[in-house]
Design goal:
It is a single chain. By secondary structure, the chain is α/β, with parallel strands linked by helices. The chain is built from 23 helices and 28 strands. Strand 22, helix 13 and strand 23 form a beta-alpha-beta unit. The structure holds one RNA strand.
Length: 796
RNA sequence: GGGCCCAUAGUCUAGUGGUUUAUGACGCCACCCUUACAAGGUGGAUGUCCCCAGUUCGAAUCUGGGUGGGCCCACCA
């Protein structure tokens, strides 16, 4: 047999990935009777490449899934890509140098679909090359026909259940992207601004109000003061004259006013911020729209009409300075909401939108959250926190070009919506016509809805998108509810919550039994990675430099839910473990060529190792059942490096090299058992190297479909371990002596005298000590005795 | 401002009341070519367990308060 001296990770990893795909190692078997473990895999957004956070969290899930597979589950582990919505639009606009707003809509959609097809394989390849054990044939894209159909079906079902409505409502608006946004799509940004003290007129008296947005004066519909504000409460009920525009507005008392802020008096505009919306609703205030959808002033702004918002602000400030209506300006820094993709300050505008009504279901959602098993458990409170804080129904419409269209048309005559038939889905109302027209309507009497769904409206259906691939199969019912939802903590309020909402509405049950929440991968300083900071680490580079297994080893070093700072040293440590495994397996294999499969005559040191091994199996298995995969890293690594490699192997070397007898057979048995078990325990974390060594030295079939080791309880013994540990202490003391005297470890002392109160326990390990220290003459003795030659060791 | 989480050697980390003179790794220092491995081995040095107070016979561990950091929410006139 030609032996390779070194492990070529890059070569081996690619070879095994191809092997797994060819052999269908991770294929879900719909015909199997084994219990199913199903995973609602997060579909990553096709944005060109996998980032380190992906590598981190997908590895953590993969470890759990690989464990379940080895435990005998029929694993359903699909893979999808999320190629819906704004992210894709932006990607296409950038790479293809086009503007969606300046193109024919269908042409743009075709370009998106076409581009996605070409970049998707390469994108998915990053996941494959990490050794993620998804069944790549169970695939969905959130924009393909299958998903569009399910998403539209979901909408129609909610219509039927009276859970959706269309309404003119104030929505968060991005004037650059020209669409409604959800709370999720906002970012905070600190900006320099001015607090402008401006004068409203109470008859002849000046009332000073501070505002950062004087250009909204044309939209001013009321003025508010705090009901307990002694200074200003006498104004309540009066009508004030708005500067510049001279219309009159009422003064109303409301406790949402902070009397300490500004002058303690606030103007309410429709709309400046969220509080304005609340007041607008609570006091039935008029609507005065000052801003257009593309961020310019309306005719209401009179001389400023048509100006972009910021320009209008400057102009109105200058004019008010001249007129004396602006009495003071204070420079401030304040936080404003900007669109996460456009970076532009958001506005609140009223526009017709589709909503999912769910505020009435708050209690159901809280109860459902309690029924889920959360790992780690404390993540549940983030969910509760969000549900308790819900203020608005879910706005699911977006005024974008690329996405899943609403299956809706409107009657030109009545304005009533006309819904698609569920058997004509997926539909694009821009191209298709409704199956049934309302009475007295021809096709010319209808107009299509041009809005598309919020991406969450579709991605909240991932359990359905994945399992409905098996809809016509008898296994379908068993796939839901799914066993596991893995995801990161930042999107608990969106993806997790929305998925639960849809599942409760459609199926009246939770979409999964368990959720596993992973943390974030941070840069080496523990800071969030972002392109603008330039601290992005590409997992592909690390994979190429070290190996996929090393990358996984790093990812497995942080507890579920904890963030992990990038550390290249961990990759070096991982490489070391991988090399060590390789060498240990080679050594073991060398001595197993004539192994007959028997147990031989076990020596005390053999029982010591077997006890440690079985204890490790027991704790690691138990931990993995609780999603605590870090134990693999902590316990298996420790067992393998310390007990097995550093001590046991050094001790049994001379038995393995020695003549064929029962003692040698026992050593072969233990070494083979330990190697096989260690490989299996490491397999979820290091799938490539363990497969390589398992198939070379253990079995000719995949380690990943082999059975997870079971701990043999009767082999675990506290006493044996304690006594063996003493022997290891003696060996360590001898090594220390050699090290301090500058002697080679091979050096043979004439005699070693051990002083210990545990002579009886050590007695049985003398042959092991002798072998590891290369010294034949070992005896017990007293410290006081004069020893003429050799080494004296004291152990207690 | 509110909720949740985190804080252990230069760095990462184990440890949820006594078994700990705190675990392992990286890094550092010294020695060693030893029949798996020099991409190695053996040994060594390195800690106010964030701070203060309390509970307890005993606290890294429990309680309260503080400081620093993270995520989410709210505010952002």
């Amino acid at each position: 047999m030609e032996e390779k001296k070194r492990y070529d990770a890059a070569e081996a990893e690619e070879r095994w990935q191809k092997y797994w795909e060819k052999e269908g190692t991770y294929a879900f078997d719909p015909d199997s009777d084994k219990p199913i473990y199903s995973v609602d895999t997060p579909p990553p957004t096709v944005s060109g490449e996998m980032h380190l956070g992906h590598a981190f969290s997908y590895t953590q899930t993969d470890i759990i899934v690989r464990f379940k597979r080895m435990k005998g589950f029929n694993v359903f582990y699909p893979f999808g890509t999320d190629d819906n919505g704004l992210a894709t639009e932006r990607l296409i606009e950038k790479t293809k140098k086009v503007k969606a707003s300046k193109m024919d809509r269908q042409e743009f959609i075709d370009l998106c679909l076409e581009t996605l097809e070409t970049i998707r394989p390469e994108f998915v390849q990053d996941w494959k090359s990490l050794g993620i054990s998804c069944d790549w044939n169970v695939f969905y894209s959130t924009i393909n026909d299958h998903s569009r159909k399910i998403s539209q079906q979901s909408f129609l079902d909610l219509v039927k259940k009276d859970r959706v409505y269309r309404k003119e409502a104030p929505v968060i608006w991005d004037t650059q992207m020209q669409t409604a946004l959800s709370q999720v799509e906002l970012e905070d940004q600190e900006q320099d601004s001015y607090f402008n003290d401006i004068t409203f007129k109470d008859g002849g008296k000046d009332i000073i109000i501070a505002t950062t947005r004087p250009e909204l004066l044309c939209s001013c519909v009321a003025v508010f003061v705090h009901p307990d504000d002694e200074k200003h409460k006498k104004l309540v009920g009066k009508e004030l004259e708005v500067p510049v525009y001279h219309h009159k507005v009422k003064v109303i008392a409301d406790k949402r006013v902070d009397p300490e802020k500004g002058t303690g008096i606030v103007m309410c505009c429709t709309f400046g911020d969220q509080t304005d919306i609340e007041w607008y609703k609570a006091y039935d205030l008029p609507l005065r729209v000052g801003i257009t959808k593309d961020g310019k002033m309306t005719d209401l702004a009179e001389k400023y009409a048509g100006m972009p918002i910021k320009e209008a602000r400057k102009a109105i400030i200058e004019d008010m300075k001249k007129s004396g209506e602006l009495v003071n300006q204070k420079k401030i820094k304040h936080i404003v909401n900007v669109g996460e993709r456009s970076g532009v300050e958001i506005e609140i505008l009223e526009s017709p939108q589709w909503f999912v009504r769910y505020l009435d279901l708050r209690d159901t959602f809280l109860k459902s959250g309690k029924k889920l098993k959360w790992y780690p458990d404390h993540m549940r409170s983030r969910y509760d926190n969000w549900v308790n804080g819900l203020q608005w129904d879910w706005c699911i419409s977006r005024q974008r070009y690329f996405g899943v269209p609403f299956p809706v048309w409107y009657s030109k005559k009545t304005g009533e919506p006309i819904f698609a038939d569920s058997d004509q889905l997926p539909v694009d109302p821009l191209k298709d016509k409704p199956k049934k027209l309302p009475k007295d309507h021809t096709e010319d009497d209808i107009i299509p809805e041009t809005d598309v769904f919020d991406t969450w409206a579709t991605s909240s259906l991932t359990p359905d998108l994945a399992t409905q691939l098996f809809k016509d199969h008898k296994v379908f019912k068993k796939l839901q509810p799914m066993s596991l939802r893995p995801q990161a903590h930042d999107i608990i309020s969106f993806w997790l919550f929305n998925t639960l909402v849809k599942s409760q509405m459609h199926h009246k049950r939770n979409p999964w039994e368990t959720v596993a929440i992973s943390g974030w991968a941070l840069d080496a300083k523990g800071k969030k990675m972002s392109k603008s900071k330039g601290n992005v680490i590409h997992p592909q580079e690390m994979r190429d430099k070290y190996s996929a297994d090393a990358l996984r080893f790093w990812a497995s070093s942080s507890k579920l839910g904890d963030d992990l700072a990038f550390s290249e040293r961990e990759f070096i440590a991982a490489s070391r473990t991988i090399t060590k495994l390789w060498n240990l397996a080679r050594f073991t294999g060398m001595h197993l060529e004539d192994y007959d499969g028997g147990e031989g005559e076990l020596q005390p040191i053999d029982r010591w190792l077997l006890s440690r091994l079985n204890r490790t199996v027991a704790t690691v298995t138990d931990a993995l059942e609780n999603y605590d995969y870090v134990r693999i890293r902590l316990d298996v690594d420790k067992f393998f490096m310390q007990s097995l490699a550093d001590n046991y192997l050094e001790i049994v070397k001379d038995r393995l090299y020695g003549e064929k007898n029962e003692s040698r057979t026992a050593a072969q048995y233990v070494v083979k058992t330990a190697l096989t078990t260690v490989l299996k325990l490491f397999a979820p974390v290091l799938p490539h190297i363990t497969e390589e060594l398992y198939q070379e030295y253990c079995e000719k079939s995949s380690i990943h479909t082999s059975s997870w080791p079971e701990a043999t309880k009767k082999l675990i013994s506290d006493d044996i371990e304690k006594h063996g540990d003493l022997a290891v202490k003696v060996i360590s003391a001898v090594r220390k002596a050699k090290s301090q005297q500058g002697l080679s470890l091979k050096h043979e002392f004439n005699k070693i005298t051990i002083e210990s109160s545990s002579e009886k326990e050590l007695e049985a390990f003398l042959p092991a000590i002798s072998a590891a220290t290369k010294t034949k003459d070992i005896a017990f003795g007293k410290a006081k005795e004069e020893i003429e030659e050799g080494l004296k060791i004291s152990i207690d």
